[in-house]
Amino acid sequence: MEAPDAESLGFLEDTLRKTMLSASGAALDAALVDLGWRDMLDEIPDLAIPLVFRLLGETGAHAPVLNDVVLRAAGRDAGATVSLPYAGGSWIVWGRADTADGALDSELPIHRVDGGLEVPLAAGRQAIGWWLTGTSRAMLTLARQHALDREQFGRPVASFQAVRHKLAETLVAIEGAEATLRAAPSAEQVDFASLLAKAAAGQAALCAAKHCQQVLAGIGFTAEHAFHRHLRHVLVLEGLLGSARELTTEAGKTVRTGGSAPRLVQL
Amino acid sequence: MDVAEYRSAVRAWLDDSDLSPSTDKSFEGQEVQLKRVRQALFDSGWNRWGWPAEVGGLGGPPVLRAVLSEEIADRDLAEPGVYCMVEVLAPTMISYARPELAAEMVPLLLSGREQWCQGFSEPGSGSDLASLTTRATPRGEDWVVNGQKVWTSGAQFSQRCVLLTRTAPGHAGITAFFVDMDTPGITVRPLRTMHGVDEFCEVYFDDVVVPGDRMLGREGDGWQLAMDLLPLERSTCFWHRIAYLYERFDRLLAEAPADGDAELGAAYLALHTARCRSRDSQHRLADGATLGPDTSIDKVLLATAEQRLYDTAHDLLPGVIELDDSPWRSEFLYSRSATIYGGTAEIQRNIIARRLLDLGKE
C-alpha cells in the first residue's frame, strides 16, 4: 500500500467517520477489517493510527482495535486480544465481543485479569493519546455549542468571560497534547516520546472533561445528554497503559537519573 | 545552507570561541555581554544567516536564526529577553521601513553596534494597547511627538526606538516611527522591578521632532505593525526562551532531591509540550503560513511551562530562593511576569475564545 495523497486520505477519513457514526463495538471491529484497517496498520501505521483513533474519539464510537496495535507492535497477528497494563499495577483485557464487563464505561468490554506479559507500549500509547484528544475535541464541540445556545440573564453564556476562559484552556490543553503526539523523535527516543504524549493527552482529556462538564452544567450531568459517554471513555482510557500521573512521575525519574532533559524534538 | 549543516558548523565555531559571560549578572553586565556576542556572531557571519541580503544578511531560511538562538541558550551566552529583541525589531524594519532605511539600520542592530527598543505600552494603555495617546502632529515635513511610554525594555541603552503614536482616532489612527533616542526632548527613567533589574523604563517625549521619512509604513499602519509583530516574537523568540528553560531545568535536575519525580516530570512535560508546539509553529511559518491568533496557544503553553519550572524549583529546593543569594531567586521572581508581559494570560484566553473558538463577543 502506498501512502495515500491528500484527496484519498480525505476520502478515507470521510468513510471511516461515516462507519463509526453507524456502528460501534464488535460491528465496528468487523467493519474496520472490511475497510482494510489491518493492512493500513501494517503498511501506513503512522497515518492509520492517528486517523482511526482520533476519529473514534471524535465520533464517540469504540472498537477493540487497540489490541491490534499492541499485537502488531509485538510482532503478533492482529485480531486476537492481549493483556494490557492498567494504572495502579492492574492488568486488563479488552474483549472483542459486546459484553458489559463491569467497567465504569459499560459500553467497553474491558475486564481485569490477573496479569500479563510485557509488551511494547509506544504504539499503543500513541493510539490512546489520539483517542483521548479526539474525545476531548468532541467534548469541546458539545460545550462550545451549548455555551452559544444557552441563554441566561438575557445573553448566551458564551459571552461570560469565566465560561470563555474554561473553553480556551481546554483548547490549549488539546492543542498542546496533539503537538506532543505529532513529535517525530529519533528512533531510540520513540518510547519516551510516546510516554510523554500519552501523559499530555491524559492531562488534556481530564482538563477538557472538567471544564466542558462545568460549561454544560446541569444538562451535562444527565444521562440524556451525550457528554457522559465521552466522560466515561476518558476516565477508562486515561488509566490504560499508564495514567498521566504515573507517566509524568516515571518521566521525572528518567530525566533525574539521566541528569539532563532530553530535547526530543528538533527544528 | 540546511539546518543540520548550519547547526553542526555553529556548534563547532562556538566550541572554539570563548564567549562565556563574565560574573557581572547586572542588566548593564548583560548588555555588555550581548554586544560582545552579537559582534562576534556578526563578524563570523553566523547571525547573518536567515536574514535577507538587502539588510546585510547571508540569506537562507529564517529557521536558522532559531537554531542559533538555541545554541546560545544551551551555552547560557546571553539573556534570552534582550537577545531576542532583534527577532522582533529587524523584521518590523524589513516589512515597514523604507528599503534604504532598513538597509542602513538593520546591520547596526545585528552587529551589536546598536541596541533598539520598542515604545508601545503606556501608563493608560497596557492590555488595551489601541487606546494609546502619545500624540504625533505634523509640522512641515516633520512630526512632533508628545506623550509617555512605559515598560520599554532596554531604553536606557538604546540608540533607536520603534514608537507607536496616535495621529488620528481609533485603530486606524495609530502610526509608527523609527526614532533616534538622542533626539532632544526624550527622557528615559529606568524602572526598578521586583527582581532587582532595571530592565524596563519609562520614556517621556516632550516636543520630540521626528523626520517624516522615519515613518514606518504609512500613516495609520501602526496597529497592523503591532499585530504583525506578535507572531514574530512567538516564533524564534519562543524557541529561544524554551531552550533557555531547558537549560535551567537541567540545572534543577542537578540539585533536585530523589523524592520529587512527580513534580520534575510535570515540569518537564510542560516544557516538552511547549517545545513540540513551538516546533509545529515554526514549521507552519516555514511552509508559508501566516501565524496569527493561533500563537496565543504557544504563549499560554510557554508562560505556563515557565512558571511551573520555577514553582517546581521553589518546591524542590526549599529555602534556596528565600535564604540564599543564588540565580534561582531572581529567576523565580522574574518568572512571575511570564503571564503578564507580551499580552496577559487573560488577554490570550480572550483571543483564543474569540478568534479560535468563535464564541462571539463578550
Question: What does it look like?
Answer:
The complex is a heterodimer of chains A (267) and B (362). Chain A starts with 5 loop residues before the first helix and ends in a 9-residue tail after the last helix. With 267 residues, chain A is mainly α. Chain A folds into 2 domains: 6-113, no CATH class; 122-258, Butyryl-CoA Dehydrogenase, subunit A, domain 3 (Up-down Bundle). Chain A is 61% helix and 6% strand. Chain A has helices at 6-22, 25-34, 37-43, 45-59, 66-73, 122-149, 161-182, 190-216, 227-239, 244-258; strands spanning 84-86, 90-94, 110-113, 151-152, 155-156. The model of chain A has no long low-confidence stretch (mean pLDDT 96). The radius of gyration of chain A is 19 Å and the shape is globular. In chain A, helix 8 (190-216) packs antiparallel against helix 9 and helix 8 runs antiparallel to helix 10. Helix content of chain B is 49%, strand content 14%. The longest helix of chain B is centred in the middle third of the chain and has 34 residues, at 222-255. Chain B is built from 12 helices and 8 strands. The model of chain B has no long low-confidence stretch (mean pLDDT 95). Chain B has helices at 3-16, 27-43, 63-74, 80-83, 85-96, 99-110, 222-255, 261-286, 295-316, 320-323, 327-335, 345-356; strands at residues 116-119, 135-139, 142-149, 160-166, 174-180, 186-191, 200-211, 215-216. Chain B has 3 domains: 3-114, Butyryl-Coa Dehydrogenase, subunit A, domain 1 (Orthogonal Bundle); 117-220, Beta Barrel (Butyryl-CoA Dehydrogenase, subunit A, domain 2), CATH 2.40.110; 226-356, Up-down Bundle (Butyryl-CoA Dehydrogenase, subunit A, domain 3). Chain B starts with a helix and ends in a 6-residue tail after the last helix. At the A-B interface, helix 6, helix 7, helix 8 and helix 10 of A face helix 3, helix 7, helix 8, helix 9 and helix 12 of B.
